[in-house]
Design goal:
The complex is a heterodimer of chains A (312) and B (412). Chain A is α/β, with parallel strands linked by helices and 312 residues long. Chain A has two domains: 149 residues, Rossmann fold (3-Layer(aba) Sandwich); 102 residues. Chain A has 16 helices and nine strands. In chain A, the strands form three sheets. A five-stranded parallel sheet of chain A has the order 2-5-8-1-9. A two-stranded antiparallel sheet of chain A has the order 3-4. Chain A has a two-stranded antiparallel ribbon with strand order 6-7. Chain B is of the alpha/beta class and 412 residues long. Chain B has three domains: 118 residues, no CATH class; 198 residues, von Willebrand factor, type A domain (Rossmann fold, 3-Layer(aba) Sandwich), CATH 3.40.50; 38 residues, no CATH class. Helix content of chain B is 46%, strand content 11%. In chain B, the strands form two sheets. Chain B has a six-stranded mixed sheet with strand order 6-5-4-7-8-9, with helices on both faces. A three-stranded antiparallel sheet of chain B has the order 1-3-2. In chain B, helix 10 links the parallel strand 4 and strand 5. In chain B, helix 2 runs antiparallel to helix 3. The longest helix of chain B has 17 residues. Chain B is flat, with a radius of gyration of 26 Å. Classes of the chains: A alpha/beta (312), B alpha/beta (412). The interface between A and B is medium-sized, with 27 and 22 residues.
C-alpha cells in the first residue's frame, strides 16, 4: 500500500505542491501552486502562457524532478509534423529487410507487410514515448512553445490530449495505460485555439513581486549576497514599471545576479549597471533608452528607498 | 402587397400556399440567400408532411429547408416575419425605402440585413438611385484635413445593399486569383515533387509484393501568410472607411489568419467583431467597439501601441502588414519613424495603401509620409476609394516601379 502511494507520489494539498516545488528551488505563488495541484489531481493538461523568461518551462522540469518522473520534451517549431512528434518508420532498415527477404526467396506479401510495419522498425518520438509509460510512473510531457507550431499540429494535439491515444494506421491505436502529466507552454506569439485551451487548465504566468523574486534569487543563486539581491530586484522591478519593448524576466534577473557575482560586485553602481545592461535588456532601443542618466536615476531612486526601509 | 396568406392548419398546401412559398423563396434569394428550385420543392414537401399546427411549426419547417448556414438565420427570421404577416414590420420597411419624405428610420429598422431584405421585397432600382444622390448632401467635407485632437465619436454605417454585397464578393474573388503565398515547412504528396516520400514509396512497393520500388514524390506546401491590417479611421480618411470595412469583412471571411486593427487616436482590435458572418451584424459590432471614429490621427502612438501590445502576438509566421493611412500626422514625427522602423523589423512585408495618391502630382513631401516611406516594401495607390473593385485591383496588381517607395522618395 505504502509503496503504491509512493509510486503515485502526488502531493495531497496545495501547500504540499508549493513545498514540493520549493524543494526543487522553484518558488511558486499561491495561484500557480493551486493550478498545478488541480492539474495533477484532475489529470488535465496544464497550459501556461506568459512572457519569455518567467519560468514556464522550468515548472515541467521541476515537477519531473520532484515527482521522480521522466521528463519528455517536445520542442515545437514551425512545420512540426507527426513524423517528428509522434513516430517515424525506419525506412532504411525496412528496405534492407525487404532485400533480405528477397534474397532468401521468401516473398510472401502478407507476411512481409506485417513484418515491415512492426514495432521493430518504429522510431518513437516524444508523444508516443509519453504514452508508453508503466503504471504509476507516467512521465511529465512538456510541449514547449506551442505557439511556434501551426494550427494543423494543434488540431492533431486535440486527439492526443483528450483521449491520450494516437493511431498508427499500420499498427493500430496506442492508448496510454496512465495518462502523462502534460505541461504546455506558450509565449503567446499567436493565439492558441480555444478548443485546445478548453481541454487544459489555463494559467498566465506573470512577473513575480519583489518578495518572491528575492526568494527566487536566494533559492537559485545562494552565494549572492542578500543586499545585492535586494538592489537587483528593486532595479529590475523598477525597469518593469517603465516602458520597455521587452521587460526583463526572472531568467534575466538570475543571469544578472550571476554576472554581477562574477564581477565581484557587492553593490550596484552606475558604471557596472551600464556595462552589464546587455544581460538584462535584449533590444538595442531599450538599452539606449536605459543607459546613462536613466539607469542612474532609477539607481538613485531604489537606493533611497532601500535606505529609507532599513532606517525604519 | 397581397401575399399575406393565413397559415393553414392541417390542410395540404393549397395552390395558394404553394405559390406563397414560391414567392417567399424568391424573396430570400433576392435578399442574397442561396435558394434554388430544389429548396422550394423541399419546402412544399415539408409543408405537405402535414403536421403543421402552429405558426411556430411552420417557421421551423421552412427554417429547416431554407437555412443552411448560421449567418442566414437572421435574414430568414426577418424575412419570415415580414412575409408571413406582421403588419408593423412592413410599415418599417416601407419607411426605409421612402426615407426622403419621412424621418430617419427608427431604431428597429437598424436590424442586420434589413436593408437587403427591403430591397428584395420592393423595387431595387429605387433604392439604388437614392443612394447615388447622397454624396451631394455633404455639409462639410473634412476629407484629407487632419488634426491630433481626440474626438470620440460613434459611427452608424448604412447597411449594405444587395448590389454592394455582390460587388464585394467579386472584388474578393479577384484578389483570390492573385494570392501571394509563402512556402511552409510541410509537405504534400506530389507526382513530380523534388523529394522522395519514403513512407508512400514503401507502402506502395509492399502492396506490389516488394519486387519493385516505385518512388513516390512529395513537395512543399504553399500557404498564405497571416495578414494584419492597420486601418486609419481618422477624419481625413473617414469617407472610405465604410467601404473598406466591407472589404475587410469579405477578406476576413475568405481566408484564415487575418487580424484587423483600426486606429485614429487610439488602437482597436476588431478581428473578433469582423468574424461575424453577416456583414451588417459585423458592422454594428464594429461601430460599437470603436470609440474614435473620424477624430484626429496619431499614427505614431497608434503604431507604438500596436508594436508593444500586439506585434508579438499577431506578427508571426511571416505575417504581412497592410497599412491603410494617408500618413498625415501632426504629432512628433520622430516617434512615427522609430515605430515604423520597429514594425519593419517584425513584419515580413509592409504594404502601404495611400488614398492621397489618387491626386495627380502627389509628392512625398509631408513629414509623416517621408518618415514612413523608407520603412515600407510597397506603396500602393488607390485611385478611387468609392469602389471595392478599384481597391481590390490596387492590391492585386503585380508590383511595378511605381510601387517602389524609393521612386517616390527620389521624385520629391
Amino acid at each position: 500500500m505504502d509503496s503504491d502511494n509512493k509510486a503515485t507520489g502526488l502531493p495531497p494539498s496545495i501547500d504540499a505542491v508549493a513545498e514540493l516545488l520549493k524543494s526543487q528551488g522553484y518558488i511558486a505563488d499561491r495561484a500557480l501552486s493551486t493550478v498545478v495541484f488541480l492539474a495533477l489531481k484532475m489529470g488535465r493538461p496544464l497550459f501556461l502562457e506568459g512572457e519569455a523568461g518567467v519560468g514556464k518551462t522550468e515548472i515541467a522540469k521541476v515537477l519531473a524532478g520532484a515527482l521522480g518522473r521522466k521528463l519528455i520534451r517536445l520542442q515545437c517549431y514551425e512545420g512540426l509534423d507527426v513524423n517528428a512528434a509522434v513516430y517515424e518508420w525506419n525506412y532504411s532498415a525496412q528496405m534492407i529487410e525487404i532485400r533480405l527477404a528477397e534474397a532468401a526467396g521468401e516473398l510472401d506479401r502478407e507476411r512481409l507487410g506485417h513484418d515491415i510495419f512492426s514495432e521493430k522498425f518504429l522510431t518513437k518520438r516524444p508523444l508516443l514515448q509519453a504514452l508508453e509509460a508503466v503504471k504509476g510512473a507516467a512521465p511529465v510531457l512538456l510541449i514547449d512553445e506551442l505557439d511556434r507550431t501551426d494550427e494543423a499540429f494543434e488540431a492533431f494535439l486535440l486527439e492526443v490530449l483528450s483521449d491520450f491515444q494516437v493511431t498508427i494506421p499500420e499498427l493500430g491505436t496506442i492508448t496510454a495505460a496512465e495518462p502523462p502529466i502534460v505541461v504546455i507552454t506558450s509565449n503567446r506569439t499567436r493565439e492558441v485555439h480555444d478548443a485546445l485551451k478548453r481541454r487544459c487548465l489555463y494559467h498566465w504566468v506573470g512577473y513575480p513581486d519583489a518578495e518572491r523574486e528575492i526568494a527566487i534569487i536566494k533559492a537559485r543563486r545562494p552565494d549572492a549576497s542578500a543586499a545585492l539581491a535586494r538592489e537587483v530586484v528593486s532595479f529590475v522591478q523598477a525597469l518593469r514599471q517603465g516602458e520597455l519593448y521587452k521587460a526583463p524576466g526572472v531568467a534575466e534577473t538570475l543571469d544578472w545576479v550571476s554576472a554581477l557575482h562574477e564581477l565581484d560586485a557587492i553593490s550596484l553602481d552606475p558604471q557596472t549597471v551600464n556595462d552589464t545592461l546587455g544581460v538584462l535588456l535584449k533590444y538595442q532601443d531599450d538599452i539606449v533608452r536605459m543607459e546613462g542618466s536613466e539607469a542612474k536615476r532609477i539607481l538613485d531612486q531604489i537606493k533611497a528607498e532601500i535606505g529609507a526601509m532599513s532606517r525604519t | 402587397m397581397d401575399r399575406h396568406p393565413a397559415i393553414p392548419g392541417n390542410a395540404s398546401p393549397s395552390g395558394r400556399l404553394a405559390l406563397n412559398i414560391l414567392h417567399f423563396a424568391r424573396v430570400l434569394r433576392e435578399a442574397g440567400m442561396p435558394v434554388g428550385p430544389g429548396h422550394v420543392i423541399d419546402a412544399l414537401d415539408a409543408a405537405q408532411a402535414g403536421s403543421l399546427r402552429s405558426r411556430e411549426d411552420f417557421y421551423w419547417t421552412l427554417h429547416a429547408v431554407f437555412v443552411k448556414r448560421r449567418e442566414h438565420k437572421e435574414l430568414f427570421d426577418q424575412a419570415f416575419h415580414v412575409f408571413w404577416k406582421k403588419p408593423k414590420m412592413l410599415e418599417q420597411l416601407m419607411q426605409l425605402m421612402f426615407q426622403q419624405i419621412t424621418r430617419p428610420a427608427d431604431e428597429k429598422a437598424k436590424q442586420a440585413g434589413f436593408r437587403r431584405l427591403a430591397e428584395a421585397m420592393f423595387d431595387k432600382v429605387e433604392s439604388q438611385s437614392r443612394r447615388e444622390e447622397k454624396p451631394g448632401a455633404l455639409d462639410f467635407d473634412a476629407t484629407f484635413s487632419h488634426s491630433a485632437l481626440e474626438v470620440l465619436r460613434r459611427k452608424d454605417f448604412e447597411q449594405m445593399t444587395v448590389a454592394e454585397q455582390a460587388q464585394a464578393r467579386l472584388a474578393i474573388a479577384r484578389l483570390r486569383t492573385h494570392r501571394l503565398e509563402i512556402r511552409t515547412r510541410r509537405f504534400k504528396p506530389f507526382h513530380s515533387g523534388e523529394r522522395i516520400d519514403l513512407r508512400r514509396t514503401l507502402k506502395g512497393s509492399l502492396r506490389a509484393g516488394g519486387h519493385l520500388i516505385d518512388l513516390a514524390k512529395r513537395e512543399r506546401q504553399w500557404r498564405e501568410p497571416p495578414l494584419v491590417v492597420l486601418c486609419d479611421i481618422s477624419g481625413s480618411c473617414s469617407n472610405y472607411s465604410r467601404m473598406f470595412l466591407h472589404f475587410l469583412h469579405g477578406l476576413m471571411n475568405d481566408r484564415e489568419r487575418v487580424s484587423v486593427f483600426l486606429f485614429g487616436t487610439r488602437l482597436t482590435n476588431i478581428s473578433r467583431e469582423l468574424k461575424r458572418r453577416d456583414v451588417d451584424e459585423a458592422m454594428m459590432k464594429v461601430s460599437s467597439a470603436v470609440k474614435d471614429w473620424s477624430g484626429g490621427t496619431r499614427i505614431g502612438s497608434a503604431l507604438k501601441e500596436f508594436n508593444y501590445r500586439w506585434a508579438r502576438r499577431v506578427l508571426t509566421q511571416g505575417a504581412h502588414v497592410l497599412l491603410m493611412t494617408d500618413g498625415l500626422d501632426r504629432e512628433d514625427v520622430s516617434l512615427l519613424e522609430v515605430e515604423m522602423a520597429r514594425l519593419r523589423r517584425s513584419a515580413k512585408r509592409i504594404i502601404w495603401l495611400n488614398p492621397l495618391l489618387r491626386y495627380q502630382g502627389f509628392e512625398a513631401r509631408a513629414a509623416g509620409i517621408r518618415a514612413m516611406m523608407p520603412h515600407i516594401d510597397e506603396f500602393r495607390p488607390v485611385h478611387s476609394l468609392e469602389s471595392l473593385a478599384d481597391l481590390a485591383g490596387a492590391l492585386a496588381a503585380p508590383r511595378r516601379a511605381e510601387h517602389d517607395p524609393k521612386t517616390w522618395l527620389k521624385a520629391s
